[in-house]
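Q: I'm building a small set of examples for a reading group on sequence design. Run inverse folding on the following structure and report the sequence directly after it, with nothing in between.
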């Protein structure tokens, strides 16, 4: 089979576009953790809680409730503002904390618990677990657990790998260490992509605006949603309106542990 000149020109012209499109799709899938090697399991299976790997992907789809989760803290400037909003609005959240930050600000972690919030393990130093061997993953989880135990006297039962990058092996490690791994299904982009702590202790570079964060939450709301936020100044500014908007749409806000309890007590 031979190509005419015009057909060949079209093929040559289209080939770079096709390659670019395929690469773009692959990047987006990897960015959201849908390729093996990032988290290893696509969330489109419809499974809410996978007991085999002890991973919570979503709350009960039949219950009009959502969970607020807040990652990466505690930051000494912004978490107190977040806690103030939660108190005023009578809402409890699940904070996935980083052990290094817990060691630096144990009083804030104790305040989280006094207010009725719960804590989850978000590693000791916030590396991507997929870059570590099994011993390294265990060390990161154990380090954060030790920091929280020293600061509060409490053990944690929930873990979220930084960046939600994990494999089945990592999930098995989490389970062996008596943790439930917690996914998310509403992300709003309230973080700095240049580095995990690039904005500490007060960078003026913010990735998005309050209105954008609110819009990103509301457009994705669904029964059993797990919302991931970060202890950023823009998030603290948006939180009151986010809570109000969630409630005005008829949803109840619960902790991740509450969500797990409700899910396990309801037949799938």
């Amino acid at each position: 089979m031979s190509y005419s000149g015009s057909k060949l020109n079209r093929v040559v012209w289209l080939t770079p576009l096709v390659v670019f499109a395929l690469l773009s799709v692959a990047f987006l899938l990897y960015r959201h953790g849908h390729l093996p090697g990032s988290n290893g399991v696509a969330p489109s299976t419809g499974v809410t809680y996978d007991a085999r790997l002890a991973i919570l992907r979503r709350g009960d789809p039949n219950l009009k409730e959502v969970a607020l989760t807040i990652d990466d803290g505690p930051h000494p400037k912004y978490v107190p503002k977040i806690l103030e909003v939660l108190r005023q609005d009578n809402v409890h959240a699940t904070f996935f904390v980083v052990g290094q930050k817990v060691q630096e600000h144990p009083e804030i972690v104790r305040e989280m618990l006094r207010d009725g919030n719960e804590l989850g393990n978000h590693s000791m130093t916030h590396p991507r677990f997929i870059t570590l061997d099994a011993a390294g993953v265990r060390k990161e989880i154990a380090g954060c657990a030790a920091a929280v135990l020293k600061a509060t006297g409490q053990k944690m039962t929930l873990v979220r790998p930084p960046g939600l990058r994990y494999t089945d092996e990592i999930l098995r490690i989490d389970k062996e260490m008596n943790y439930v791994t917690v996914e998310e299904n509403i992300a709003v982009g309230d973080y700095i992509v240049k580095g995990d702590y690039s904005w500490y202790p007060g960078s003026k570079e913010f990735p998005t605006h309050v209105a954008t964060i609110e819009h990103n939450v509301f457009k994705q709301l669904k029964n059993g949603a797990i919302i991931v936020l970060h202890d950023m100044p823009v998030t603290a500014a948006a939180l009151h309106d986010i809570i109000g908007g969630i409630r005005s749409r008829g949803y109840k806000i619960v902790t991740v542990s509450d969500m797990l309890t409700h899910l396990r007590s309801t037949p799938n």
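Confidence is low (pLDDT under 50) at residues 24-45, 193-206.
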